[in-house]
Amino acid sequence: MTEIKLPWIDEEAIAAEHPTIFHYTNYLNLRSILESGGLLSTPYSDTNDREEFRAAKNILCPSIATNLYNFLKAKQPQFMERVEQDGHDPQEICEKDADTLYEVSLRTNVYKPYLTCFSYHSADHHKENGILSMWRSYCSLPGGIAVGFSTEKLIKRSNDLVAKYKFLLMFLDEAIYGDDTEKLKQRLDDCDDVIKINADFIHAKIERREPQIDTDALHKLLILSASIKHPDFSDEHEVRLVVSESQDENDTRDDVQKHGSRIIVEISDCISEILIGPSKDQSAIEAGVRHTLDAFGNSDVNIIRSNTPFRNL
């Protein structure tokens, strides 16, 4: 949950549309998931996507720059004239300023998010077999499984974890891909204060007032950026669990389990099913999965086999 309410952060809608969401991994990792109590959550700066958050930047910065340019042209025409007289292009300066704001905001924002990634199965063949691109990308070793989590239980568990660890925020959000113009437009319309961050800051500087950074807008910038992905990844059907720890040293809270730079999000009690991926010997993998589940008291978890043909690539 997060104190800032945005229309698109609708966990109930996600639960209704996607009752189960899946984390793709190797079956040997199932024991560590159950032993630790959950999944590793990765800092946004350490994810395997080197362009993480850059998809959002490429979409947001032009809008921020255009807003700043139009604002200055209407409210500070003399300033714009001086810029042109000095031989500079006002539009280019606004673009560079928007780019700088974005980079600084990500580096200095107090809301440092950790990300745990899931996929939803909406098409019938995905529900029965899983997503082939995910089997190939995240289950390259023999023995791939998709660990299914009850979305409803996950949301309830999130509330408990927020109270236990005093997380600043914890929420599920369905990823939006860069070519999904309708959803993207809706989110930008709901983030008018984000688009205006630069204009408000520059206006105060020109008028020799102390600029006041809108921390709520910066918070929204991060939340928005955590949801936008490059369109080439759209086949992953991603739902993200976004978590941020409190920076207040006075908070009375339990210590979050750490694993290097990552934290462990304790959600293993939300596992509802396991899908066995394409393999030369699904029976052996299923037996290993069942043995592990039984050993940790999870005998009620349903196991399903994917019918996707196995290719030993």
SS elements, strand count: 12
Low-confidence regions = none
**Tally of individual domains:** 1
Strand/helix succession: HEHEHHHEHHEHEEHHHHEEEEEHE
Based on CA atoms alone, the radius of gyration comes out at 23 Å
Main beta-sheet strand count, sense and barrel state: 10 strands, mixed
Structural class: alpha+beta
Roughly what fraction of the amino acids lie in strands?
Answer: 15-25%
Q: How far apart are the first and last residues' alpha carbons, in Å?
A: 42 Å
Shape: elongated
Mean pLDDT: 87
Counting DSSP H or I runs of 4 or more residues, the number of helices is 13
Helical amount: 40-55%
Question: Could you characterize what this model shows?
Answer:
The chain has 13 helices and 12 strands. The protein has 313 residues and is of the alpha+beta class. The chain has one domain. Strands 1, 2, 3, 4, 5, 8, 9, 10, 11 and 12 form a 10-stranded mixed sheet that branches. Strand 9 and strand 10 form a beta hairpin. Helix 3 crosses helix 5 and helix 3 packs across helix 11. The protein is elongated, with a radius of gyration of 23 Å.
Topology:
Layout: H1 11-17, E1 20-26, H2 29-36, E2 39-43, H3 54-75, H4 77-85, H5 90-108, E3 113-120, H6 124-129, H7 132-138, E4 144-150, H8 151-165, E5 169-174, E6 176-177, H9 181-189, H10 192-195, H11 197-206, H12 215-225, E7 228-229, E8 238-244, E9 258-259, E10 262-265, E11 271-276, H13 282-295, E12 302-305
Parallel strand pairs: 6-7, 11-12
Antiparallel strand pairs: 1-3, 1-4, 2-3, 2-10, 3-8, 4-11, 5-8, 9-10
